Amino acid sequence: MYDSILEALRRGAATDALTAAEALAAERPDDAQAMRWLSAAQLQNGQADAALASIDRAIALAPENAELHLARAGVLVGSRRPDEAQAALDQATGLDPNQFGAYLSQAQLALTRGDLDEAERVNRLAERVAPHHPQLAVVEGMVALQRGEADTALKRVSQAIEAAPDDAQLRYVLGFIYMAKGHLAFAEQAFRAIVEKNPAASSLWGLIADLLGRQGRFDEAADALGTLFADPARATPGLKRLAGHLRLRAGQLEQAQPLLEDAVGQGAHDRATLSALLQLWHAQDQQEHGRALLEACLAAQPREADLWLARLALEDMGSDAALALATRWVHAAPESVAALEAQMAALAHAGRGEDADAIADRILDFVPGHSDAQARKVNALVARDPSAAVAHVESLLLQAQQDEIRQTLLGWLALAQDRAGLHAEALGSWLKRAQGYLPNSLPPNPLSASVQAWPERGSITPETPSRPLLLWGAPGSGVERMAAVFFASGAPLRGDRFSERAPNDGFQRYVTVQELVNGVKKGDGLIADWRTRLPARGVYDGNVVDWLVWWDNALLHELRPRLPEGRLLVALRDPRDMLLEWLAFGAPAPIAITSAEEAATWLAAVLDHVATIVEQDLYPATVVRLDGIERTPSAIAERLSDALGGLRLAVPPEPGNEGFQPGHWRQYADALAGPFATLTPVAVRLGYPEA
Predict the structure, then answer these.
(1) Tens digits of per-residue pLDDT, 230-250?
(2) What are phi and psi of 674, to 5 degrees?
(3) Closest C-alpha to 585, from 650, 660, 645, 652
């Protein structure tokens, strides 16, 4: 969408960039990024005032976007020049090398194009004219920052601020350097200093509010936006969206809801805002109110997919109302694959399998190889004729070129083989797929001895207000379904350990086990470090449901004395069903499966740790058995509520039909005889039958 603009900017084709940017901005006037690149193109063409107006418009649309504020700082630098176009600027610098401001402007234009080397070169020319000028540090700091050299940028800009403490542009760059280093409070102070000295820079309040929110000061953050709300022209949908989310995080639901509804009504249709409103409407039984707002939005934008998805979320899946909505969406956007997907899902939930199959055919006409539609066709064939499904998927495998598609097809083939009673063949397909996943898999965490010499438990006092939960389940346990209940209930569940934003603490690193067993990590290091990192994860009172990637009883060396108020919450099923589920459907953590026997050996060992905790009462632990209720969210919520003393929990959406019935492992008694023999002793210890 933005490629033509960026490409023109990179090759210095200012007129082409401006033409493309103006066309995109006219087509998408509420797109903050479109306005950002229009500003860059205008600056490249010498339209400094217009560039500043466009970047301010972008910030009004997305007031918390730090990149837009950084771009505004660049516009301020780049506008320090005569009003002539680039050609006149080149002429000026060629005739009179003492025009310091012109050099700075050329450097900023290079930054806009992403040409850091050119920006550095022109800045050196400016340095020859005025060797000690503080403004040199603006470009130097921005170049270093964009190269990821935050420490270098901080040193240079800090020195320049000593010489020019009131320079707003230097403080802009300083604020962004602090943000890059994660020093949010310092960044906030830098931007506040700009606004205090220059009230005209009030657009910075959106960024300041975002920084306050990232420090957990949500009510202060929302209040900080009051300055902008005082001007009706600045009360944009983006600002209302930001304020609404901050009020929501502060627990001020009554103040949050009208802000978010106004934002959506005025065009802010991002999924986070729509999702927040859906939760509010459901929690307060205001579905009819939500329907009215979304219908009004759809009347204005009948092809907006996220609006249709939100509208469908207010109806029971498979109901007449959901079917009618999906049909309306298809009529409004007949070429939309998302609309057809919604119609296929609604028909499937309504039990109209043949109609859903027909929609799957339409989707495949648009997108050959579409995974959900192809899966629908395969599943329908499996239900009618499993042997024919095996042959069909084998034919698809022969045509597949990409590894990712082959992995998916191997999974489908295994399920078809399972239904056809070809259990040894199904196992072979799963193991072949697992081999393909190995390059992107985690090794199973090395385990210590389940029984060790434990330190004494610490005492829980009335002054210990928090009650953290550590949620964990081995592969195949269904722990993700328990996590879904916590998420639907608005509990402080943290699943970031399964993402790129995982905290680098002792609960994440495998090496922690050996450190604790060998006494390398002494004192309260692990738990103290964990507590210190909680605010950055959005937890400020210590009450968290921390979903762990792995478990080892060695953690008790720290948990017993230093987190006695915690509780381990373990999801469990028959270990043999767990192995089969892991082979067939994977797990939240992509743990490598090198062979069925090695997977069973590791699973038996880690479940030995669970059995030992329970048998010896080593730590407060609650085992939640999900056998027979794996795909029934209401039953999982009820069982989890009972385990937590009657805590009121919400019921998440149905997870679909993925998974086997309990006891399905017996169908694989021959194919997996060895691995099941490995697992049976710990299964019996955990209360499951031997056979």
Answers:
(1) 778 778 888 899 899 989 888
(2) -65, -55
(3) 660
Joined tokens for residue 269:
């249709």
Please name every residue paired with 621 in a beta bridge, in sequence order, or none if there are none: 568
Residue 184: partners with Cβ closer than 8 Å, 6 or more residues away: 178, 211, 214, 215
What is the 8-class DSSP label of residue 233?
G
Closest to 482 in 3D by CA, of 353, 600, 641, 335: 641
Amino acid at 143: V
Helix (H) or strand (E) holding 312: helix 305-312
Rounded to whole angstroms, the Cα distance separating 544 from 529 reads 15
Beta bridge partners of 568: 470, 621
Residue 290 and residue 284: Cα distance in Å, rounded?
A: 11
Structure tokens at 578: 């767990």
- Give the 3-state secondary structure of residue 572: strand
Of 542, 384, 376, 340, residue with least CA distance to 460: 542
Closest by Cα among 116, 115, 40 to 78 = 40
pTM equals 0.66
DSSP E strand boundaries for 490-565: 493-494, 545-547
471 beta partners? 547, 569
E strand residue ranges, 501-599:
545-547, 567-572
pLDDT on residue 328: 96
Which amino acid, 182? G
Rounded Cα distance between 575 and 688, Å, is: 9
Q: 3-state class of 283 per DSSP?
A: helix
The closest alpha carbon to 188, from 205, 200, 201, 202, belongs to 205
- Give the Cα separation of 380 and 276 in Å (integer): 35
Half-sphere exposure of 169 (CA within 13 A, CB side): 22
Residue ranges of the chain with per-residue pLDDT less than 70: 12, 73-74, 76-99, 521-524, 656-657
Residue 147's pLDDT is what? 86
In a 3-state reduction of DSSP, which class is residue 342?
Answer: helix
Q: Give me the domains of the chain, ranges plus CATH numbers.
A: 284-440 (1.25.40.10), 469-665 (3.40.50.300)
- What gap in Å lies between CA 240 and CA 67, rounded to an integer? 19
Q: Give the model confidence (pLDDT) of 114-161 as tens digits.
A: 788 888 898 888 888 888 888 888 889 888 888 888 899 999 999 999
First to last CA, the chain: 60
| Residues with Cβ within 8 Å of residue 391, at least 6 apart in sequence | none
Q: Is 339 helix (H, G, I), strand (E, B) or coil?
A: helix
Where does 555-641 show beta strands of DSSP type E? 567-572, 621-625
Residue that the structure tokens 């006494």 belong to: 519
Closest CA to 614 of 678, 687, 679: 687
Confidence (pLDDT) at 399:
86
Query: Across-strand partners of 442?
Result: 591
CA distances from 208 to 180, 185, 573 (A): 15, 10, 48
Q: Which residues contact 91 (CB under 8 A, 6 or more apart)?
A: none
CA atoms within 13 A on the CB side of 160: 25
- Two tokens at 453? 């010499």
